[in-house]
Amino acid sequence: MTFVENRVAGIGRALIASIAVVWLAALARPGLAAQAAPRPDSSTGSAPAVLPEWVPRIGSANWMPALLGTQANLITQHLAKSSAPYLGANSLTPNGDTETSQAYGVYAGMSVSRRLQGYLDVEMIRGDGINRATGVAGITNGDVLRQGSVDLGSGPYVARAYLRYTLPLAGTGEDTLQRGQDQIPMIVASHRLEVLAGKAAASDVFDLNRYANTTRQQFMNWGLFQNSAWDFAADTRGYSNGVAVSWITPRYAVRIGSFQMPTLANGNKFDSDLRRSRGDHIELTLNVPQTSTVIRTLAWLNHARMGSYQLALDRAAAARAAGTTDTIPDVVATDAPGRRKYGFGVNIEQPLADGGETGAFVRAGWGDGANESFVFTEVDRHLSAGVQMSGVHWARSADRLALAVVQHGIVDVHQRYLAAGGLGFLLGDGKLTYGPERIVEAFYRAQIGAFTQIGPDVQFIQNPGYNSDRGTVSVYGFRVNVRY
Predict the structure, then answer these.
(1) What is the pLDDT of residue 36?
(2) 345 Cβ partners below 8 Å, 6+ apart?
(3) What does the pLDDT average to over 279-300?
(4) How deeply is 272 buried, as exposed, middle or buried, from its count of CB atoms within 10 A (0-12, 13-18, 19+)?
(5) Structural domains counted in the chain
(6) Between residues 452 and 31, the one the model is more confident about
(7) Most exposed of 1, 238, 344, 425 (fewest Cβ within 10 Å)?
(8) What is the CATH number of the domain that holds 204?
(9) Is 17 exposed, middle or buried (0-12, 13-18, 19+ CB in 10 A)?
(10) Which residues pair with 73 in a beta bridge?
């Protein structure tokens, strides 16, 4: 087969698999798929006198394990050709590239009791990102997996397996939680304590944003569905084992959590020494009174076996002074247990119209950057903003059009490390003429029938990998998402 025939055949197989997933999902119990009841009136705290049929009851069929959703996501991206005066081991290729990723997921839940639920997500990801998901801090496809410390393969795996316990607290009012990927539909107290324990993603709990939160329906770039300066605890796939506690009220929420860190940067194996290896987080969410504004402030502290950029530079300088050939700094060679890395983030979402479907967001992040970029990506400074518009304005109420920008930066010692030829797990051109990495992304999402969304995506990246010797590069993409 030719290259084009191979691509067409791969896309065809993905679409057939997507149709099969939706067909199987249609066999799920209809009880959980019923229309959700309206949210209780928050001004009175009143709830429906009779619980809706979709709310689980002890002893009913809905109290048994249930399929909450399935999805298949196909992303094809093309990196246009560009110019580059030199290349390193992790450089973004100037020759162009075209890659397709496929992501499949099945999401199930079970109410053990009225306060305790369990969730199990099984996923499978195949295909590659452009340039092997290296060469830029803002990787262009959030579905792709980097190559970690071991070969992950392309078969199914357990993404999440956790319990959530909900404890009502003193106060009036109730919230109706709609059926979702990891949410059994239920009515809960608006003042409550939630405890999550098991395997999940820290980003399931922290740094959420209505307009920039998932690569499968919103922005694809890593810098636009999350605060990329937040080096959150996770393995190569983005998941970890941990505990999170959330105190939730109508006006504010406080969330704290701790998750396992891997044994080495971009690693797939977790370090069992929790005293010296873990990621701790605390976040305050404010629902601003008499407005629809939501403000989240996040602080995080990682403990891990990290390397030191300055120590790597010092060792390379000592090697040059001694006349040896080992003069390229290697941050991994300086790894030591118990090193720390910390940072902060602010995350604002602002609904503007159309029931909140038209709105804007802003994120800012700061990391100390002294020690090795370890888990998510190589970013010490993050600033992003964007807007989403509902298609109701052009008679396509389920469609969405969005535009956003993000700027990434790294601290001086990280710059000097890359300029001296050092490698991170994503970046390394061999040398560096520093410039902040700036990304613009726009997408259109068209709803086709009840289950399918399709649309184009375009990204422009200035100074990829913080290197101003590389001109602006263009990435053109197309996404197909089929979900139930």
Answers:
(1) 31
(2) 207, 227, 229, 230, 296, 297, 298, 299, 300, 363, 364, 365, 366, 382
(3) 96
(4) exposed
(5) 1
(6) 452
(7) 1
(8) 2.40.160.180
(9) middle
(10) 103, 481
In the Cβ-directed half-sphere of 418, how many Cα atoms lie within 13 Å? Answer: 31
Q: Which residues on adjacent β-strands are paired with residue 197?
A: 163, 243
Q: At what angle do helices 309-321 and 412-419 cross, to 10 degrees?
A: 40
CA-based R_g, the chain, Å: 23
**Cα–Cα distance for residue pair 57/322, rounded to 1 Å:** 74
Report the residue count for the chain: 484
Can you give the three-state secondary structure of the chain, one letter per residue?
CCHHHHHHHHHHHHHHHHHHHHHHHCCCCHHHHCCCCCCCCCCCCCCCCCCCCCCCCCCCHHHCCEEEEEEEEEEEEEECCCCCCCCCCCCCCCCCEEEEEEEEEEEEEEECCCCEEEEEEEEEEEECCHHHHCCCCCCCCCCCCCCCCCCCCCCCEEEEEEEEEEEECCCCCEEEECCECCECCEEEECCEEEEEEEEECHHHCCCCCCCCCCCCCCCCCCCCCCCCCCCCCCCCCCCEEEEEEEEECCCEEEEEEEECCECCCCCCCECCCCCCCEEEEEEEEEECCCCCCEEEEEEEEEEEEECEHHHHHHHHHHHHHCCCCCCCCCHHHHCEEEEEEEEEEEEEEEEEEHHHCEEEEEEEEEECCCECCCCCCCCCEEEEEEEEEEHHHHCCCCCEEEEEEEEEECCHHHHHHHHCCCCCCCCCCCCCCECCEEEEEEEEEEEECCCEEEEEEEEEEECHHHECCCCCEEEEEEEEEEEC
> Is the confidence at residue 101, as pLDDT, over 90?
yes
- d(CA 84, CA 246) in angstroms, rounded, equals 48
Phi/psi for 260 (5° steps) reads -70, 145
Which pLDDT band, with edges at 50, 70 and 90, does 113 fall under?
confident
**What is the extent of the structural domain holding 236?**
3-483
What is the pTM assigned to this prediction? Answer: 0.86
Q: Are strands 192-200 and 240-248 parallel, antiparallel or unpaired?
A: antiparallel
Taking alpha carbons only, the member of 226, 230, 265 closest to residue 374 is: 265
Average pLDDT over residues 168-195: 90
* pLDDT value, residue 257: 98
